[in-house]
């Protein structure tokens, strides 16, 4: 195996791989309006899809972004998409807790399935060219116990989420994936991949074309209710709005303390390899599917849209790392799965912040002060956050309560958590140790 110094290619960069095709910027620098119908905090997938729907309905909309649009997780994801088959996934490797009634589990799956329809319709209706391919995804089973648990879910996944799911034995998986580390897999036909940065760029252009004002460098400092209106102070001015929607996910800050203490920010790290030799390009994932594991501390990977590089991601550590440190860790994990890649070097390394919730479910809702929110994708955000933004806009337009959605349940918090994830290094290490123990028992 290469030494740490040999891990990196001569042209290594900590600039995200996706930004070579579209990089976050804002050449327009729109002024913050004084008065709008809807103010949306956060210009990610959720904020922009929400703004797009409101603007098309004819309402005036301002999207307030603390940096420049696209600087957060929306342009930094792995770009895998599916119809919510990971909804409710807990770090234990299990799915929805048995205490969740079966009827609600099925409702969650049905709405997750609808989210995929919305995602595809938004791409189609706005002619967003983002290298979308419906190549399917494989959930690779870390242990036989994980396989047994997934076998019990297949009927519900196909009945309520239209997942097109089927079991792959260890031997069948070997035909899909050139790795011997897994106990088998589940193939999800209704899944695919996008170029996340190009998808974001298309959604941003569509929202602006529909009439939404997207304001860069307009960090929200406070939100206060004033009768039927909200007064929002930003770093670039103050505005009044009838409705406020918070779509900040893993970047929810101190200006919204009640929401901040209900989401746990976690950095997900990624690498892109140098261009692979032709033999590796053809053999690693021959059908170019996306791969996601069932470990507690998950790894996920896929080819780049041109098929020349492997993009490999995961939660390398649960504390701050520089991009070379996270790349070295992910490279070692990649080699554990693909020993044949021992001489392949890392060309790109980056990371973005996702938001976990205490019940591992996405949420949309309304605070006691009348502020709406769409938060908590739990690491599966391309489709779900796009959908939650759209869905919340539709509920507000139609005068329906958030509770009418399967995801409209209260967000949990804990007395010992105030918005700073002090416990994640210890908890993350515990989960990593448990993954190792499970694998050793499997081999024994």
Largest sheet: 9 strands, mixed
β-strand amount:
15-25%
- Rg is 21 Å
Distance between the termini: 25 Å
Q: Into how many domains do the coordinates divide? A: 1
The CATH superfamily bears the name: FAD/NAD(P)-binding domain
Instruction: Summarize the helix and strand pattern as letters.
Output: EEHEEHEHHEHEEHEEEEHEHEEEHEEEHH
Quaternary class: single chain
Structural class designation: alpha/beta
The helix count comes to 11
- Give the overall pLDDT as a whole number: 92
Question: How would you describe the overall organization of this protein?
Answer:
The protein is an alpha/beta fold. The chain has one domain: FAD/NAD(P)-binding domain (3-Layer(bba) Sandwich). The chain is built from eleven helices and 19 strands. The chain has helices at 45-57, 102-125, 144-151, 154-160, 170-174, 196-210, 257-260, 278-283, 323-337, 381-397, 424-443, and strands spanning 8-13, 35-41, 61-64, 80-82, 137-140, 165-168, 185-188, 191-193, 213-215, 220-226, 229-234, 237-246, 264-273, 290-293, 299-303, 310-314, 346-356, 363-366, 372-375. The strands form three sheets. Strands 1-17-13-16-15-14-5-7-6 form a nine-stranded mixed beta sheet, sandwiched between helices. Helix 1 (45-57) runs parallel beside helix 6 (196-210), helix 1 (45-57) runs parallel beside helix 10 (381-397) and helix 2 (102-125) crosses helix 10 (381-397). The longest helix has 24 residues, at 102-125. The two termini are 25 Å apart. GO terms for molecular function: oxidoreductase activity. InterPro entries: FAD-dep_OxRdtase, FAD/NAD-bd_sf. Residues 37-395 form the FAD dependent oxidoreductase domain. Keywords: Oxidoreductase.
